[in-house]
Amino acid sequence: MKHVPMNTVFVDITKDTPINIVKQRISSRGREDKDDALFVADLGDIVHKYKTWKAQLPHVAPFYGKSSLFKCNDDPVVLEVLAQLGTGFDCASKVEIQKILELKVKPERIVYANPCKQNSHIRYAAKKGITKMTFDNEIELHKIKLNHPKAELILRIAPPDDSKSQCQLGMKYGCNLKAVSRLLKVAKQLDLCVIGVSFHVGSGCFDRMAYVTAVALSRTVFDIGESHGYHFDLLDIGGGFPGQKSSKISFEEICDALCPALDEYFPKSMGVHMIAEPGRFFVASAFTLAVNIIAKRAVPRGEGYLGDKELTANDEPSFMYYVNDGVYGSFNCLLYDHAEVKPTLIDDYSSEPNFTSSIWGPTCDGLDCIVEKCFLPELVDGDWIVFRDMGAYTMCAASNFNGMPKPRCHYVIQDLPWHQLNAKKCGSGLLRVVSEMKSGHEILDDPEYHDVCPAIAVIDN
Ligand code: PLP
User: Fold this and answer.
1) What atom in ligand 1 is closest to the CA of residue 90?
2) Which residues are catalytic?
3) Burial class of residue 96, CB neighbours in 10 A (0-12, 13-18, 19+)
4) Residue 409's pLDDT is what?
5) Where does the pLDDT of residue 372 fall: very low under 50, low under 70, confident under 90, or very high at 90 and above?
6) How buried is residue 164: exposed, middle or buried, by Cβ count under 10 Å (0-12/13-18/19+)?
7) In this structure, what is the dihedral angle of CA atoms 110, 112, 118, 121, given to the nearest 10 degrees?
8) How do 343-345 and 384-387 pair as beta strands?
9) ipTM score here?
């Protein structure tokens, strides 16, 4: 294994912002990839999130809700970090289950949390010893009876109101209260084991009362379960917890409402095991994306590209910037996740005048617009624009449409969270490899790992 510590840059991220890390990364790159868009992932941020979760919701075990893995963030280093921290995983398909099992995660730390599963995927889960799975309809119960009769089932209910969530899921998944009795009756007739209830208040939930009402509804369903001869002992409170620094509501604010509700409706004496499926919470703020301005157009203000007026000396200009990642790449979050993104500059332009500007992706498609209108100082080709909070629902659905490459990720972590990860004991995977190569805190720059792990910097405090 060749070890190339040449681009070694040590960044003290205790003082630096993600922007400074991006700056360091940009300046330390080779000539070939100098202007490629890039992600910087602060793995310490994920460790910090895990500690925050444990402090706020100590009695709720997080199962990293990548449902789907290919939806939220399936970065192999992120998965390794979370596996190492001890989270469980919620999976939506055979491939996701395979990926997580490869990390040596035990089957009991996996929930197959897709209420509408493919027969062969259910059989695969059965073969691999994964027992916990969700359902929300009668046909699914018959499928499970056929393919995995010993499964431990979790009834997914629809939240009463998910209208204040960034992405609503209630129109697709979850049964309503009226259907609960009928479904449990069928489950009983089929001699299936139902162990609990799950809900998802919608991804990116900004209403803490949505959790409270869903917890109350879950308790009602627990009681209905008793009347059908079931004694549920698992509550899965799903995901939806915001993970970005700029969130309208903080995780702590949600917990302030959620914890008393859990205590009220599920007192300790009930002995209910609680789990959750947080996705964006763990990853959103850990990733910062830097894009390069590859082209620029000046148009008269208010005219836009479609205006046929040439810019004259009397016009106030407006600038259209074309950058090398867009809505067919990492910014697919604008379409699928209804995300809002905010451009940030890496240099100090505070004394420069601002102009009306728009930011466009690199593909030849008019839809590929990242920011329709913002105010920026005049930038030039080759300048960088940075977007924070880009870890959730970004790179997973990114495509290479028009031959545009996906940005590579550079990983950073401080020494303290690194040690908290106890990386040397890691059974498998990249962190172990990096850990073994760590002497002297070099950046790993081994071609063998370039696809998944182009560079990890371990930083001294
Ligand atoms: N669990 C399930 C079943 C999901 O569908 C999703 C996302 O859609 C998640 C968990 C993760 O949700 P979030 O990222 O909002 O925490």
Assistant:
1) 1
2) 364
3) buried
4) 86
5) very high
6) middle
7) 10
8) antiparallel
9) 0.98
CA distances from 265 to 196, 200, 204, 246, 259 (A): 14, 17, 24, 31, 10
Q: How far apart are CA 213 and CA 434, in angstroms?
A: 45
Select from 68, 72, 133, 155 the residue to mutate for testing ligand 1; criterion: most ligand atoms less than 8 Å from CB.
Answer: 72
Ligand 1 pocket member 205 (CB < 6 A): no
At 83, the amino acid letter reads A
Q: Which amino acid is at 192?
A: L
Ligand 1 atom index nearest CA of 65: 10
**Are 148 and 125 within 8 A, CB to CB?**
yes
pLDDT computed for residue 358 by the predictor: 96
CA of 226 to the centre of ligand 1 (A): 28
Residue 202 Cβ inside 6 Å of ligand 1? The answer reads: no
| pLDDT(293) > 70 | yes
Lowest mean pLDDT among 14-23, 55-64, 313-322: 14-23
The residue to mutate among 68, 70, 201, 277, having the most atoms of ligand 1 within 8 angstroms of its beta carbon, is 277
- List the structure tokens of 247: 């969130």
Among candidates 328, 331, 351, which has minimal Cα distance to 401? 328
Task: Lowest mean pLDDT of 133-147, 211-225, 363-377, 401-415, name the range.
Answer: 401-415
pLDDT at 165: 93
Q: What pLDDT score does 422 carry?
A: 59
Q: What is the pLDDT of residue 186?
A: 98
- Which of 67, 133, 201, 285 for mutating ligand 1's site (highest number of atoms within 8 Å of CB)? 67
- Whole-model pTM: value is 0.88
Q: How far, in Å, from the CA of 75 to the mean position of ligand 1?
A: 16
Buried b (16+ CB within 10 A) or exposed e, 230-245: bebebbbbbbbbbbbe
Strand ranges for 378-430 from DSSP E: 384-387, 408-414
pLDDT value at residue 30: 74
- Measure the CA–CA gap between 175 and 197, rounded to whole angstroms: 11
**Alpha carbon 303 to chain centroid distance?**
38
Residue 113 CB–ligand 1 contact under 6 Å: yes
